[in-house]
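ENTRY TYPE: protein
CONTENTS: sequence, structure tokens:
***
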Amino acid sequence: MPFFLMAQSVKDTLKVELKEKEKEKEVVYPKFKFKGLLQVRFLGSITDNVDVLGVQHTTGEVTRSSFDIKRMRVSVAANLSEHTEVVVLVNLADFKSDPQNKVLENAYAKYTFNKYIAFTGGQFRPGFGIEESVPVDIIKSFDFSNQYYEFGKNGWTSFQIGASMTGSADLGNIPVNYAVSVLNGNGRNQNMDKDSGKQYSTRVVFGLSKKHHLNLGLNGGTGKVYTSDVFALGADIAADFKLADKLSLDTQFEIKQGTNHNLYYSLPVDARTANVNDYQMRGFYFLPNFRYVINYKKLTSLEFSARYEYFDSSFKVDSNVRQTLTPMLSLEFGKAYTGRIEMGVEIDRYTKNIPNTSYYDKELFIIQFQCRL
């Protein structure tokens, strides 16, 4: 009898301990995650008669040096359940200028059924290139590329309003990620679409090598803007290589082409052709980044990158190629760019210099300090 009583007691104790462990594993919803980002800069124009915003002036005094708050972001992500997530991101630095159609960046809800399919609705960055999948605070240069912002003005990249379906699967031994989006295509924080047309885009990424993080991305989009057919195409490749024990090389290459309907409809009717697709933009960039791990006291790593960009906002009509070289030295403090000091130069060259505009050869010196939570 004592033996059986002791056995029952041990069994009951194990049941209680098991239930307590199961309770510990249970996640209490809603679950919140807060993030923040501060980027402050010193800007110095090296070119005579060109201000820190890149505009050339033929007469008068120009501001050739200035401190600036580039971004002051605050975000909150709320997991309402195992499958539902709501994300809000604001950039408070946008208040320094006209905040209309600014400030609010992300505002979306995402429901994940499984790894194969998830739906996102609201204001978000649709999948259309490498830069869409990388936050600005961990990119390997001062900012996104020129083509990223131009394609954003045309509704393919940056923050857009719409819906998206994403997921991943395996194609044999090759992992594949995809994104399919339908968008208003007229930017963020708009009361409504500018017309009844929509822009449809898709992105597929193939993981070709796990060892070198070699990924190939293909992008395509089509849609209607004011009854005109528009399109966008792109391809990109990214890879990492370990050159030595503490030295690695990250590389990115991306190429895009598409209709510049934003430029077309900004022109007077008598100053443009009859076909919107006479105005097409195209460009590419190559971004190598060398990273040397130091881990000495507060200093985590030393990085050097030099992005080269080639971009033409209208290569068929009134072409004016912009070439940009951005060498940059970066010191990382803490993990995952918790603290970062960057310094470098943005060097712009145009086929044709246009006085009193930003389409002018220039060099801009930048020192940027970054903190992220």
About this structure: The mean pLDDT is 92. The CA atoms of residues 77 and 87 lie 4 Å apart. The first strand starts at residue 31 and ends at 45. The two ends are 61 Å apart (CA to CA).
